[in-house]
Design brief:
Elements (H helix, E strand, L loop, with lengths): L3 H84 L1
Amino acid sequence: MTPPAEQEAVSLEALEERIRQTIELVARLRQEKQTALTERDAALREAAQCRQRAERLAEELEALREERRQVRARIERLLGQIDALTEA
């Protein structure tokens, strides 16, 4: 049987070890949290940039569709004029 003083020393050492492990865990978790926050911020910035680009592309697509409609109308008008010339 171990003397009470030795048991207390062993218990104190075990407690110190648990506290040290807890401190290391807290430090690691803080670092992981900071890394996660940094990654989140980067992802949010990238998402915002992607949304802006998507909006610009949607506007460009609409402009191109409108231009295509105008070109089609002009070509149809020209073809109509050519048909009128060939019939005359």
